[in-house]
Specification:
This protein is mainly alpha-helical and 82 residues long. 70% of the residues lie in helices and 0% in strands. The chain contains six helices and no strands. Helix 2 crosses helix 3. It is globular and about 25 Å long.
């Protein structure tokens, strides 16, 4: 089973309810649950927040999330120290 769907169902949310809470179109959530495309880091973080989970728990095979998150942290730290 798709992890996004699994986490959504654990929270007892429909795709429509998840859409309203995240601002992500229901049709997009439906596609992701059917493994058609994948969310960008911003959408993945919004989903994780609403689903009370870590991005890497919901999307365990998306290495790009970890790499993107790490590079963002590094640039943020650089901005604060400059």
């Amino acid at each position: 089973m798709n992890r996004l769907r699994e986490f959504r169902e654990r929270m007892k949310l429909t795709q429509t309810e998840l859409s309203k809470r995240t601002g992500i179109p229901q049709t997009t959530i439906s596609c992701w649950e059917r493994n058609i495309g994948e969310p960008n880091i911003s959408d993945a973080q919004r989903l994780a927040s609403v689903l009370q989970a870590d991005v890497n728990e919901i999307f365990p095979n998306e290495i790009s999330f970890e790499a993107h998150s790490t590079s963002e942290q590094g640039s943020e730290q650089g901005e604060h120290t400059a």
